[in-house]
Write a structure and sequence with these properties.
This protein has 110 residues and is mainly alpha-helical. The chain has a domain of 68 residues: Rhodanese-like domain (Oxidized Rhodanese, domain 1, 3-Layer(aba) Sandwich), CATH 3.40.250. Helices cover 25% and strands 4% of the residues. It contains 3 helices and 2 strands; from the N terminus they run αβαβα. A two-stranded parallel sheet has the order 1-2. The longest helix has 12 residues.
Length: 110
């Protein structure tokens, strides 16, 4: 590394990846340009597309530690889509058990 290069960011969790079958919905997709939630009908349209026919009651929102996933849960409520749950431990808890599968990109779980 030369003096002008920044060090590579280090992930908080020791294992990178995601739970197989997880669907990504960045919380920032819920926001308008002014940083506020999009109107409820727009949130509903976005979530209906993201859910692709899945029941909201079968949704478990998660992130790295369970904090920003709450933003998605609130946006679902604002959209009138109730019943999703929080996986509070999220990725940080998931990877504590080495027997749990980890997916990376389009790969199969390892």
């Amino acid at each position: 590394m030369t003096p002008t290069q920044e060090p590579a960011p280090k992930p908080i969790d020791a294992v990178a990846g995601h739970i197989a079958g997880a669907v990504n919905h960045p919380f920032s997709a819920n926001l308008a340009a002014d940083g506020r939630f999009l109107p409820a009908p727009e949130l509903k349209r976005l979530w209906d597309a993201r859910l692709a026919g899945r029941e909201v009651a079968h949704v478990a929102a998660m992130c790295g530690s369970g904090v920003t996933a709450c933003h998605n849960l609130l946006s679902l409520e604002v959209a009138g889509l109730r019943g999703a749950k929080l996986y509070a431990g999220s990725w940080s808890e998931w990877i504590r058990d080495p027997a749990r599968p980890v997916a990376r990109g389009a790969e199969e779980p390892v």
